[in-house]
Amino acid sequence: MKKNHAVYLSALLMLWISLLVFPLLDGLSAAECQLIRIFGEKGAAGNQISIEPGEVTIPRDTCVVWINWVQWSKARIIFREDAQACRSAIQSPSGFTEKDSFYTTSFMPRGGTSSLTFVGKGKFRYKVEVPDLSRGSLDLPPGQIVAEGTLVVD
Q1: Which of 21, 25, 47, 77 shows the greatest Cβ crowding within 10 Å of its Cβ?
Q2: Any alpha helices (H) in 1-154, and if so which ranges?
């Protein structure tokens, strides 16, 4: 009986310690992620793409994941205007490459993703480009459909 009592008290003590310690480990948890979806629709006025959300405000150390949901085409993300600021404010790029004057992904197929973790503050404008297959091939330009997005990192 004394042995069962000691086991019970040990388990209760471990539970009590874990309730005190686990809230202190909050800073060790994984970074938050913001999902940005790229959609496309075909219409009488031509093919259109959209980004949802188009503008987003995130805290530092947030991972941003872009996913291509355009059924009829591949898509790529390009940071042109803010490429230098973007390069210095990110870490852990997945699917992005650095070019001379811009920061870009390759063309992502439907369901493909690319991501960046923003560690620096700033406002970053980017474009999503989808080739307009009715006017050419995957070579951009001339045939392209563009949507613009903005990330604000606090």
Answers
A1: 77
A2: 2-21, 83-89
